[in-house]
Each structure stands twice: as C-alpha cells, then as structure tokens.
Design goal:
- It comes from Acerihabitans sp. KWT182.
- Keywords: Membrane, Transmembrane, Transmembrane helix.
- This is Type 4a pilus biogenesis protein PilO.
- This protein has a four-stranded antiparallel beta sheet with strand order 1-2-4-3.
- The termini are far apart.
- It has five helices and four strands; from the N terminus they run H-H-H-E-E-H-E-E-H.
- Helix 2 packs across helix 3.
- The protein is of the alpha+beta class.
C-alpha cells in the first residue's frame, strides 16, 4: 500500500486523534440534524398526548357528574307526570268549577260559589257559576290575577266589588260556552 493508492484509506495517514475528532463531529452533526428534523413530530406527539389526557379527565368528570342524574326511565316518568299536571291545569282553565276552586282569596278571605240559573236569552251557555268572595286588597289582586290568566271557553259575564266593614265583597259570574250548541246552528 503505497501513496499512489486512493480510496477510503487516504486519510489513514492523518493522526488518529484528528480522525476520531472528525468522526465525532460528523456524528454530532448528523445527530443534530436528526433531532431538528424529528423535534416537531415529538412536540406534536406530546401535545396530542396532553390533549388526550385532558379529554379523558373531562369525560371522567362528566361521567361522575352524570352519575347523580336521574335515569332516563325516571325522567320519562317525571315528564309524563308533568304532562298530566299540565293537562289538569288546562282543564282548570276551561272548567269553571275547577277554576273557581283554584282561586285563592288569601288567608283573610272567604269564598262561596254555586251554579247560577241559566238565562234564556244566552244561547249556547252550558254552565254558569256565581262566585262571592270576601277578602282584603291583596286577596282581590290574587282573584283578579287568576281571572286575567284564564283561557279558552270560560267568560266573565259580570263583576262587582263593594266595601263592607273593612273587607271587599267581590261578586262575579263565569260562563262556559257550549261550543257544540253554537256549532249546530
């Protein structure tokens, strides 16, 4: 092996410490390039791992919170109960007797009611109710609020208020229209 031979072995004439240093520098440069090339992927992987942990923690917290909620069957039962109560409220608004019973004249008030005699000049009236309430001012407001909130099929035919002995005497009549009798004409 003389000096005329080329190839890879040409640098062997250099001192070993210099060759070792050059090899270490090349390896360090290659490692640095690999690190810089792979670093964004490693950071993205770490971000993804953090996001997955956050989502898992959030899901477990929601599961713990939802454990205290009623079951769907219990919710359905409650919904059906509320629907029945709503239907009863609608009936109370449409049926004078039920509506009258729901009027609250207050703790100081007294109330009486009776079926009124139907008048012959009002066609289609199926039910009439005369109501007498003795109450204070707040009770009168409650009665008026209930009367204002009524809906469908029930009408107020007369209303009178008188003051007697520090109390208010309220008299009114409610009438439920018989829609069948009106429709038959």
């Amino acid at each position: 092996m003389g000096t005329s031979e080329g190839g890879l072995w040409r640098g062997t004439e250099l001192p070993w410490p210099l060759l070792t240093s050059a090899l270490a520098a090349a390896a360090a440069l290659l490692g640095l390039c690999a690190f810089l090339f792979l670093r964004p992927g490693l950071l993205a992987r770490e971000d993804l791992r953090r996001d997955v942990l956050h989502i898992e923690n959030t899901l477990s917290r929601h599961k713990r919170e939802r454990a205290g909620w009623p079951s769907p069957a219990r919710l359905d039962a409650r919904i059906s109960t509320l629907r029945e109560a709503l239907a009863a409220c609608e009936t109370a608004y449409q049926e004078p007797a039920v509506f009258i019973k729901s009027i609250d004249p207050g703790p100081l008030g007294k109330m009486s009611w009776r079926a009124a005699t139907p008048s012959s000049h009002r066609r289609g009236a199926s039910e009439r109710w005369a109501v007498a309430v003795s109450t204070d001012y707040q009770g009168l407001r409650r009665v008026l609020d209930r009367l204002a909130a009524r809906s469908g099929g029930v009408s107020l035919t007369s209303f009178a208020v008188a003051v007697r002995g520090g109390a208010l005497d309220v008299e009114f009549e409610l009438e439920k229209q018989d829609t069948r009798a009106i429709d038959d004409d």
